[in-house]
Amino acid sequence: MTATHLSLLGSFEVAVSGAPAATSTAGTQRLVVLLALRDRVVSRAAVAGALWPDTTSELAALRLRTALSRLDSSAQSVVEMTPGGLRIDAACAVDYRLARQQAFDMLETEHPSPRQSAAQTRESIALLCLELLPDSYDDWVLDEAEDWRLLRAIALEALAATLSADHRPHLAMGAAQAAVRNEPLRETAQAALIRLHLVAGNQHEALRVYERFAVVLADSLQLSPSPMLRDLVSTLVPVS
Description:
This protein folds into 2 domains: about 5-90, Arc Repressor Mutant, subunit A; about 95-235, Serine Threonine Protein Phosphatase 5, Tetratricopeptide repeat. About 60% of the residues lie in helices and about 10% in strands. The chain is built from 11 helices and 6 strands. The chain has helices spanning about 25-40, 45-50, 55-70, 75, 95-105, 120-130, 140-165, 170-180, 185-200, 205-220, 225-235, and strands at about 5, 15, 20, 80, 85-90, 95. The strands form 2 sheets. A 4-stranded mixed beta sheet has the order 3-2-1-6. A two-stranded antiparallel ribbon has the order 4-5. It is elongated and about 70 Å long.
């Protein structure tokens, strides 16, 4: 069986047997992306309506039939036509689905995942730093991208806490720094980084993170850090 891999994080790509395979048109890419994000069989009417929302249902259906008849070989390798509609072939690996599962695993407290190696942890952190199709402007992609933004933010913060509790400070710091880079105005991400500096005994670094964030928050949103964040550094008072 030919192995296929669909990438939606960072950029769109279909790989067949490990080699990138270009999809011919933007319309083909949109069709593949829609099916990958739905992760189930989608009726042809629903696909047509999502891809061409500003046309009549008859014209949208015609455009879908035309698009399906013109699928290039790489798209044909991932799109499966069923009696009930269309879906991504079950044998195709989709990086976004795998990343979401990793993120949910990081949030699982009752049944935590097995401990990863340092290299695997860094790969997980790097995966959570990737945006979902940042160059796409379809509403159904933007909605999914917003869900992914929030999920990966929470997952990175949870991973930082887990790694710190597991006495892996360097990896924990990497996860917290990634959380801050991804969401520089997110207070819980800043709090995760500050806590790690405090645990390590680096009071100056903790205070520096807080003060830098306070300036950015004021400049960007005309807000002050919350009491939660202020409490973290409230005891770091310079000796008089």
